[in-house]
Design a protein that fits this description.
- This protein has one domain.
- The relative contact order is 0.08.
- It has 6 helices and no strands.
- The N and C termini lie far apart (about 85 Å).
- Helix 3 runs antiparallel to helix 4.
- The chain is mainly alpha-helical and about 160 residues long.
- It is elongated and about 95 Å long.
Amino acid sequence: MSLEQASYVAQIAGGAAVVISLAYVGFQLRQNTVQLARGEANAALGQNSAFRLAIANNREVAQLWIQGLAGAPLEPHDRLRFDMLLSENLWISFHLWDRSRLRLGSEGQWSRGVVRGLVERLSTAGGSKWWARFKDRYPPAYVSEIDRELAATSPEGDLN
């Protein structure tokens, strides 16, 4: 084999090595992206679980939640607690909306489950009054989407 032919073989081998390396890097990048998305989803689930468990495990918090959504008169300290609970729920929902917008979650996750519950809560007497008072604290695109969903939906307002 001549030196020129050896040079061609080396160039072909080098090109193949570059292609294989790029494919391997692409594979690793995809794995890393999946792991990051999974970690972010776990964090979102942890936030939502803590919120739900606060209501499920504490009768007083559950009663406050029901009374607040029903629009019942609340003492100032209970009004503050209810406002904080609903605010926390809206921020958790915002992060789930943002995940959906960025295509980080499963397709339709926002429209299938999250927004339906949010509309039910914000359509209650207490929820609608709260939303009118506090919606300016949230990002405009999120507020627009919720307002659009509220306008398009006429839920029963059932607190169960």
